[in-house]
Amino acid sequence: MKKNEIPYKIYLDEQEMPKQWYNVRADMKKKPAPLLNPATLEPMTVEELAPVFCRELVEQELDNTNAYIDIPQEIQDYYRMYRPSPLVRAYRLEEKLQTPAKIYYKFEGNNTSGSHKLNSAIAQAYYAKKQGLTGVTTETGAGQWGTALSMACAYFGLDCDVYMVKVSYEQKPFRREVMRTYGAKVTPSPSMTTEVGKKILAEHPDTTGSLGCAISEAVESAVSREGYRYVLGSVLNQVLLHQSVIGLEAKAAMDKYGVIADVIIGCAGGGSNLGGLISPFMGEMLRGERDYRFIAVEPASCPSLTRGKYVYDFCDTGMVTPLAKMYTLGSGFIPSANHAGGLRYHGMSPVVSELFHQGLMEARSVEQTAVFEAAEMFARVEGILPAPESAHAIRVAMDEALHCKEKGEEKTILFGLTGTGYFDMLAYEKFNDGIMNDYIPTDEDLEQGFAGIPNIPQNQ
Amino acid sequence: MKKNEIPYKIYLDEQEMPKQWYNVRADMKKKPAPLLNPATLEPMTVEELAPVFCRELVEQELDNTNAYIDIPQEIQDYYRMYRPSPLVRAYRLEEKLQTPAKIYYKFEGNNTSGSHKLNSAIAQAYYAKKQGLTGVTTETGAGQWGTALSMACAYFGLDCDVYMVKVSYEQKPFRREVMRTYGAKVTPSPSMTTEVGKKILAEHPDTTGSLGCAISEAVESAVSREGYRYVLGSVLNQVLLHQSVIGLEAKAAMDKYGVIADVIIGCAGGGSNLGGLISPFMGEMLRGERDYRFIAVEPASCPSLTRGKYVYDFCDTGMVTPLAKMYTLGSGFIPSANHAGGLRYHGMSPVVSELFHQGLMEARSVEQTAVFEAAEMFARVEGILPAPESAHAIRVAMDEALHCKEKGEEKTILFGLTGTGYFDMLAYEKFNDGIMNDYIPTDEDLEQGFAGIPNIPQNQ
């Protein structure tokens, strides 16, 4: 073990925690494209979004100008229950890889949701409560977001209705029980409880569900009831705003020890972790203060940034949501059943999409077996059993560290370790048994998905 | 939320972490009774124990005189990967209970084993490696110890053979997969891989196993092979020594803020968490420096302290281990299948037993449904989903806090939150579905267990 001044884990004091979120859109010269009303193709207004989302969240969603937004004291107090999260120096991994690179990771898994999702869940539940609502509805796939929202709703005394992608509901009964323990109602999606669910089931009676379907049901369930709103755990601008707490803490911890990252790596499904982690660093780059390399890592089985189209598309399968301009595989795209874990959304955060489109970020796709190989090695040397999602970032962090070894470069790598894999052991079991498959969609598979993209003028 | 100078979580700096373990036996006027050789009824010697246990651990086991034992630097470095664990002020729980009591808990669940078990696993694997061994064998019930040892063996490059109680192996396949991910070999017990396993299966072909059986198999598997030793996750003096790191950190954190506990509460199965948590505080009391109330909490379904006998008994079902003087239900006792989670060992740490016998500690047994009610409330207000084991301590901490409310007493309560319940969702599901049973052994059940206690002179 090397002697070093930098501890294994840097914990900020509670007083050093961020008191404002950072809104990267304020520093983007070309802003992300606005959400469009699919009927008029005009940008969605506060009035149009308010029946679906909590009012203050709508304002955050549309705010492209304020760089810093105060975190209400009550949210800060809830953050203090599980934050600051540690910034960990991966001494053991560096030693194992024999790399001159210095590797850091921001670990968001030390809370019961097992991921960073709680950062936005608390904020969204807070604003729902403040607005006097009875409850919120949402969807969940891998289950981390649903768990996080259940926890937040228990804190604030809100009803929580979760539409859980049917295949996850069946394969992850324990995730469901965690949500129930926090008082949430969990329904497998598609279900017969919504019109859109009935329609999808009539057309595809054997479907195992998708995030896109579950979003449609959750939205319908919210807008059809008094006192309910819909909340979403990723993709949206507001979510990236809340998740900026990850990057702000990471940056504060690194600044405290004079550490400067060269490469910043995050896994990307809807983009909330990645967007949150990179935002303050990206802000520095946008303001011309410092240069970084950013790498978004996605599964080869759901490659929205690396093989998707940058167009306006629906956020859900039932086509009940506004249109978002994003890298997308088409709202009907469903990744192969061989794909384990999350990162299975057909689209990508408009903010992340626009940053990538402007060439400010790289994207890389990785295959499942390579991801689990990285996860296993990481677990054995660093102790933490990573979520499959997080292991995408680990894979590329390792690859970059090995590249540094080849080139003899002493770079500093920061990656986001979004969560733990305790509820993903079925996937680990497949890997342990050597029966994991890497299915990558063919060009024909992708064309099928693209065919579902709405036929509208795409030069917005 | 109250304004307060004490943060939600007190994290010591890595430099403030203990550099020595504390051995409470050194301050006990009447020492715990020695292990006896069942053949001679003489105290076990280093030479007799060395074929079973690692040599340096045997020395720790028999050391009743040295109060402080250096923690080797390498173990300290591994501790720094997941320690210090936070001392949490339960502001939300206090508010929920409307109690004047101040509640603190030492949370040991923020590592992949999900519990405090890793503290001793790392120490035991370190000494095994130092001795040049090939591997170690052990048993696991709920799975936390097996996971912890798997992690530690991955760190040190040791083989790890885990005999897992058959009912847990079947009900907790995900625990098994975590161990496999760390490279351990996991065998359901009783098995046909050992003579004692074959014998037990011949007599009880339908048995679902017990910790006592699994210990017998693990011991046989170790002593019958070159380069292997047996390790145990609780009960033993050496384990309590390693676990003193919990109490030492808790005390250092409290001292830092001038907080003095009145009541200290821990769940008790084999006694390792309880013994580790209380040891430095008990040391103060034994030296006449300060008074505390200590409460051991055990399940009503496995009530070794509250209904057991304080006699010499075997540590395992196959009667291959030395005899230990402890509160015991008889080495053949198996708790009802309705009992969820751990805390199912038939005996109790000789150190804890002797302290209890001397009247230095109280013991209380609690029923399962009341335990899960406490767990649910705790999860919903404090966020952390507790292990069923840990929830025993939560139950009594809440009861004590409510007692303070009745009496208007502003006491300070410290309890050990040993771990998380992520792998115990089958039990939570029963509770959520309202089909949890509280089975308490009858006097006749207990008599059956007592009948298995060896018929030797018990006045040692």
List the helices and strands and how they pair.
The structure is a homodimer of 460-residue chains.
Chain A: E1 9-10, E2 20-22, H1 46-49, H2 55-62, E3 68-70, H3 73-82, E4 87-89, H4 91-97, E5 102-107, H5 118-130, E6 135-140, H6 144-156, E7 159-165, H7 166-171, H8 173-181, E8 185-189, H9 195-203, H10 211-223, E9 228-230, H11 237-256, E10 263-267, H12 272-286, E11 293-299, H13 304-307, E12 309-314, E13 323-328, H14 350-357, E14 362-366, H15 368-382, H16 388-407, E15 412-417, H17 425-432, H18 443-450
Parallel strand pairs in A: 5-15, 6-7, 6-9, 7-8, 10-11, 10-15, 11-14
Antiparallel strand pairs in A: 1-4, 2-3, 4-5, 12-13
EC number (chains A, B): 4.2.1.20
InterPro entries (chains A, B): Trp_synth_b-like, Trp_synth_beta/beta-like, TrpB-like_PALP, TrpB-like_PALP_sf
Keywords (chains A, B): Amino-acid biosynthesis, Aromatic amino acid biosynthesis, Lyase, Pyridoxal phosphate, Tryptophan biosynthesis
